[in-house]
Amino acid sequence: MDMSVVAVGREDDSPVEEPLRVAVLADRLGYREVWAGEGPTWDSFVLATAIGAATERATLTAGPVPVSVRDPLTIVRGAAATAAVTGRPVGVALGTSSKRVVEGVHGRPRTRPAAALEESAAAVRALMESRPGEPIVPGSGFLRRLPPPGGMLTVAAFGERAVAAAAGHADRMLLDLVSPEQVRMLRARMLAAAERAGRTAPRLAAWLPAAVDPEPETLTQVLRSVAGYLTVPGYSDMFVEAGLAAVVELAAKGADPETLLRALPPEAANTVALVGDVGTVRARIDAYAEAGLDEIALVPATAGDPAGERTLTALRPQ
Description:
Blueprint: E1 2-8, H1 18-29, E2 33-36, H2 44-54, E3 59-66, H3 72-86, E4 90-95, H4 99-102, H5 113-129, E5 150-156, H6 160-169, E6 172-176, H7 180-197, E7 203-212, H8 216-227, H9 235-241, H10 245-252, H11 257-263, E8 274-276, H12 278-291, E9 295-300, H13 309-314
Parallel strand pairs: 1-2, 1-9, 2-3, 3-4, 4-5, 5-6, 6-7, 7-8, 7-9
Helix pairs in contact: 1-2, 2-3, 3-5, 5-6, 6-7, 7-12
């Protein structure tokens, strides 16, 4: 199982400089890739560039960036510029994000998200393969000056059409906060879509919250991630099957995040995360591998474990 590290994935109340500390530690421990997620605080390309300046070896991936907010050229230009400044391969990850972020934060319409993802993935794929001296976009008259960014194209997917976009264009398909059972189902969906597209199936990765020997505050941080998915279609059914029907119903009625957090039992984290002592977490990793996952992108909980040092050290590549 390949292991990478997400320097920042979700918006929370951790220190704004914490992603850099996570990235520096991950690089020092030998993790091969660091993801710079995008959210209301961090621009993923600025963060990836800062990580490149502060680390020595790790490959960089920016995103997922919301395709309703950034056009394909902006995405590839950002990756190519980051690669030029850092001297590292830089990949990009695409996603549809949520209405709450796209419309509530950026003030942009989130319409036709599946179609927007397909269109963006196709355009980004073509732009990532173009070379210096070629038109930056067909017919523009402006020539590309920077080399390709050199990293993978990743597409975050869950629904049928997003999986088809990933299978049709990506080097890697990304899942977020999933159980081994969901991995098995989504891998089968991805393989079928790749066969229809006549392509080799992408690698399959998942962002998974991780906390080895968690303190109470560490576990709380993981549970906050779970609370945000209780009403998401496809996830709610999974949580119901895991015995959390009452909390899912509470979320559906519009309960606030703090109420949901109080209602979630600690074992809820075991549904979609890597939580427990080292032996428990490694057994959980084996379950994801058996389900068909190629890569786990660790999202280390940092509350009670600055920079996720306890977790990242325990799971460091051998």
